[in-house]
């Protein structure tokens, strides 16, 4: 069940019933046009969770109607799903399209990799920013916890805390910065469909006759300002005019044509009516509302992908080994842009400071430096092999269902109830149950240091006493010798 209508068209999925709720309304202008920081993120989470009671009751009603054996909950802003599953003592699996939100992310003013960061920056990102993050989310937590009390769910003290829940994430090392995760956190990405829409005859003709094409798509949810769209259009025309590219395909799902300038002026002084571009009257620019993205990226003549850096677009670009120019707008996109740039297959732009010359210079760099294509092919290998892990994700969900049969108990209504902590005991590391000090063996290491210091002190003290004894004997002997010599002389 989800807000909006996502009824599957494939016959493979028509047996899955869907419960449609009302749509989630967000202020995308505020998110898309302004700088996206953890303050924006905190405000966004508050808005999304205003309907906690409504969603909790919707999910509860759905449970009563369908009697599900397992809850599979999207991780972001979906507290009601997890809370209901835990209240009903049902096994629950969490899913996220990426590792966002992370403690190391541009959204909180840090980099995704702090390996080369200064002590000051690492201190800020490890200590200061997490404290600021918790402070910013205090109202959100208080609101959710107040609602939890009303529906009989335990309070949480961490806005990202999800108890001992199997967590599946649509990511993979190579794209993701390597880190140590618990066994209950499983990577199953990149999740890509087995089949994709093919190119239309018009697109096939356009790509086959344009050997150096750039594909532009800024996603289906967020968008940028009309000024930025005009700059992107001008950049596309300049790249064609200067023979850097010979074709541009643009998927404009969120394009507001009425807000664009009537003409696009080139550096040569030529003015091209915007209507000509939007109606595909320009021979080297092809604009459409929806495009078969994977098929376009798979074509050998698509040389650069200008994207917002969403996780699906990033994965498809990696899978097809297409170098990227990334214009992050919100959510996980800034972090994805950094990851792609660190991997050496992309360069990034700033939505607050887009310049035609900057776009042109970066496209030239992506086309002329072989390292971008080489790194894209290296990541392509990882993506192709890891894309098979979606089947492992399905197996993990099956494991949860089957484990619940043997570890659960039947209540008075003959419904299966489980203890999520004991259900996942084979995945939960012992250190997580031992507490911070015991789990990290800090008590053992502390005792070892005390013993070592005691031994060193004892040996040091003993050595000091031996030296002092030897010194005293030497002084006494010296004095006796001097006294004997004096008596003999007399």
From TrEMBL:
PANTHER family: EG:EG0003.4 PROTEIN-RELATED, FI06409P-RELATED. Belongs to the UDP-glycosyltransferase family. This is Glycosyltransferase Family 1 protein. GO terms for molecular function: UDP-glycosyltransferase activity. The chain crosses the membrane at residues 444-464. Pfam families: UDPGT. InterPro entries: UDP-glycosyltransferase, UDP_glucos_trans, UDP_glycos_trans_CS. Keywords: Glycosyltransferase, Membrane, Transferase, Transmembrane, Transmembrane helix. The lineage of its organism: Eukaryota, Fungi, Fungi incertae sedis, Mucoromycota, Glomeromycotina.
């Amino acid at each position: 069940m989800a807000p909006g209508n996502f009824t599957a068209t494939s016959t493979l999925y028509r047996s899955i019933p869907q419960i449609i709720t009302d749509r989630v309304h967000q202020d995308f202008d505020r998110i898309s046009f302004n700088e996206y920081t953890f303050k924006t993120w905190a405000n966004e989470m508050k808005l999304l969770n205003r309907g906690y009671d409504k969603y909790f009751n919707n999910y509860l009603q759905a449970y009563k109607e369908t009697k599900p054996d397992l809850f599979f909950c999207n991780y972001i802003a979906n507290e009601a799903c997890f809370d209901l599953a835990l209240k009903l003592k049902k096994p629950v699996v969490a899913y996220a399209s990426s590792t966002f939100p992370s403690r190391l992310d541009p959204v909180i003013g840090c980099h995704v990799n702090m390996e080369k960061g200064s002590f000051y920056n690492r201190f800020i990102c490890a200590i200061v920013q997490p404290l600021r993050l918790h402070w910013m989310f205090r109202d959100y937590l208080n609101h959710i916890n107040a609602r939890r009390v009303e529906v009989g769910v335990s309070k949480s003290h961490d806005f990202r805390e999800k108890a001992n829940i199997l967590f599946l994430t649509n990511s993979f090392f190579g794209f993701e910065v390597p880190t140590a995760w618990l066994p209950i956190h499983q990577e199953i990405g990149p999740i890509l469909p087995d089949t994709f829409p093919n190119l239309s005859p018009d697109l096939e003709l356009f790509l086959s006759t344009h050997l150096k094409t750039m594909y532009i798509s800024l996603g289906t949810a967020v968008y940028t300002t009309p000024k930025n769209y005009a700059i992107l259009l001008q950049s596309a025309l300049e790249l064609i005019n200067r023979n850097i590219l010979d074709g541009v395909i643009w998927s404009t799902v969120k394009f507001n044509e009425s807000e664009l300038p009537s003409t696009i002026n080139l550096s040569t002084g030529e003015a091209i009516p915007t209507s000509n571009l939007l109606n595909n009257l320009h021979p080297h620019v092809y604009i459409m509302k929806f495009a078969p993205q994977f098929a376009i990226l798979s074509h050998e003549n698509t040389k650069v992908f200008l994207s917002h850096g969403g996780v699906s677009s990033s994965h498809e670009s990696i899978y097809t080994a297409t170098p990227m120019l990334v214009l992050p707008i919100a959510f996980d996109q800034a972090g994805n842009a950094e990851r792609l740039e660190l991997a050496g297959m992309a360069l990034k732009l700033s939505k607050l400071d887009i310049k035609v010359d900057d776009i042109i210079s970066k496209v030239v760099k992506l086309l002329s430096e072989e390292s971008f294509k080489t790194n894209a092919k290296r990541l392509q290998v990882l993506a192709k092999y890891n894309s098979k892990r979606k089947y492992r994700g399905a197996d993990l969900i099956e494991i949860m269902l089957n484990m619940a049969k043997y570890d659960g108990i039947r209540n008075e209504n003959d419904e299966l109830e489980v203890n999520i902590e004991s259900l996942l005991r084979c995945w939960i590391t012992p250190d997580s149950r031992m507490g911070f000090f015991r789990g990290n063996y800090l008590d053992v290491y502390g005792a070892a240091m005390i013993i070592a210091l005691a031994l060193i002190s004892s040996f040091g003290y003993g050595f000091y006493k031996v030296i002092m004894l030897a010194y005293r004997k030497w002084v006494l002997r010296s004095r006796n010798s001097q006294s004997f010599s004096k008596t003999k002389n007399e």
